[in-house]
Design a protein that fits this description.
Layout (H helix, E strand, L loop, with lengths): L4 H13 L3 E2 H8 L3 H13 L3 E4 L2 E4 L10 H4 L4
Antiparallel strand pairs: 1-3, 2-3
């Protein structure tokens, strides 16, 4: 999975904090616009890198750099 600058900031903050954070807390800590932070969270959620409970986000323990796109693993016809 390819990470952009915002993805890396969001991931590093979640990893450093080691606790559940809200969208607003992540926006405050990254200094990035809400829309960009939410987009990163959505990407992480789709790849099962984060989980959410009561609008708070936390890491699942899965490494985003190790997560491969399913399309890369599948042979093309």
């Amino acid at each position: 999975m390819k990470l952009n600058k915002v993805d890396e900031k969001v991931y590093n903050i979640l990893k450093t904090e080691g606790k559940e954070l809200t969208l607003q807390e992540l926006v405050d800590k990254t200094g990035e616009p809400c829309k960009k932070v939410f987009k990163s969270l959505k990407k992480f959620f789709e790849h099962e890198i984060i989980e959410t409970k009561a609008r708070k986000y936390s890491l699942t323990g899965k490494d985003p750099k190790a997560a491969k796109e399913e399309t890369e693993a599948a042979p093309s016809n």
